[in-house]
Amino acid sequence: QVQLVESGGGLVQPGASLRLSCAASGFTFPNYGMGWYRQAPGKERELVATITGTGGGTNYVDSVKGRFTISRDNAKNTVYLQMNSLKPEDTAVYYCKAFGRGSWGQGTQVTVSS
Prior knowledge:
Elements: E1 3-7, E2 10-12, E3 18-25, E4 34-39, E5 46-51, E6 58-60, E7 68-73, E8 78-83, E9 92-98, E10 108-112
Parallel strand pairs: 2-10
Antiparallel strand pairs: 1-3, 3-8, 4-5, 4-9, 5-6, 7-8, 9-10
């Protein structure tokens, strides 16, 4: 079955960087666009970044444009989210998802605080 395992979160100070990883299995990874979502306490889950199956197309929510970069390695069945210039408002649990597949991983916590 579909399995998504996120990792790379942590507690960092404002302005720092983190790189999240999502290891996927149970489906033909290159055939699916992928997305990174985040959910802050008391808020709805928000789509942050997307990438096409080939990696040739990406999109970002306005609040992270210029700071976050989504990428993928289809040989490793892994999608990444490079997060630079982190802000306290980026604090959330981050999840990856394959579009068209219903499964979610357990998420990885990102906390940005001084």
